[in-house]
Amino acid sequence: MSEKFLTIDTTGIEPEEGAPAEGRVISGDPIFRTWNAEEAEGGLYAGIWESTPGKWRIEYDEWEFCHILSGVSVITEDGGEARTVKAGDRFVLRPGFRGSWEVLETTRKDYVIRL
């Protein structure tokens, strides 16, 4: 087996459970589950993230690529438009992005984060 090829598979990975940071929830009671499959030197992370419905403030200091696997969410940038994302959508949130993330239907995504 190659040590340079990593399959992103949640089998056998115990998810980390969490929620938005204190004071950031706007509505609902969103619960996060994260299967972090890769943590590389230099602040690179990859895996799968899932959230139950709710809405919270987001503030990105990092760069993140997202690929929505299932569910429906609305991401709204402060002073900008609301964007509905659903299965198959791919996007990047760049450092400095500020706004809200609202999960309408439990949402699961692949992610790659670079600090």
Automatic annotation (TrEMBL):
Q: What Pfam families does the database record attribute to this sequence?
A: Cupin_3
Q: Which residues form the (S)-ureidoglycine aminohydrolase cupin domain?
A: 39-111
Q: Where is this region: Disordered?
A: 1-24
Question: Which SUPFAM superfamilies does UniProt cross-reference here?
Answer: RmlC-like cupins
UniProt protein name: Cupin domain-containing protein
Q: Please report the organism this UniProt entry assigns to the protein.
A: Mesorhizobium zhangyense
